[in-house]
Amino acid sequence: MISSYLLHTILELGATAQMTWDHLKETFQDKRVVHLKHQFSHTHQTDFLTIYAYCQHLKMLSDQLANVGARVTNQRLVLQLIFGFSKAYDRVATIIQQFDALALFYRAKSMLTLEGTRKAKQASISPDTHSALFTTGIPSTNIAKSQPRVASQQEC
């Protein structure tokens, strides 16, 4: 059933059933396109738990836009990917932007995912371990094992 408001919006004097149906379809498709474009341009990496989820969501929105006749170019997809990064990913954004032609989405996604993995690995290293790695190159759990054993006075 259709609301009387919508019925009065789509009906035109002398219109055939097909013309009315096409008008109804266009009305809803236009609203869908506007909604999807808004979602696409307001998607940010910080809204997702993982980099992968962020990339997949952008790709899904891009595919949905293509399905309603509003195809997103690779360049626009990559630019939205970059513009949606948090400050933590500025380095990757700069690298992607320096390609002669903007990287394909899948290449940019791969670079971003690798950077996310690197950052997660860094975050999992405790500050003590990180400083031990930085100063000695040896994980802190192995520092005691790697240092020469000093004999105590009782052993001498």
UniProtKB/TrEMBL annotation:
Domain of life the protein comes from: Eukaryota
This protein's name: Uncharacterized protein
Source organism of the structure: Cynara cardunculus var. scolymus (Globe artichoke)
A matching Pfam family: Retrotran_gag_2
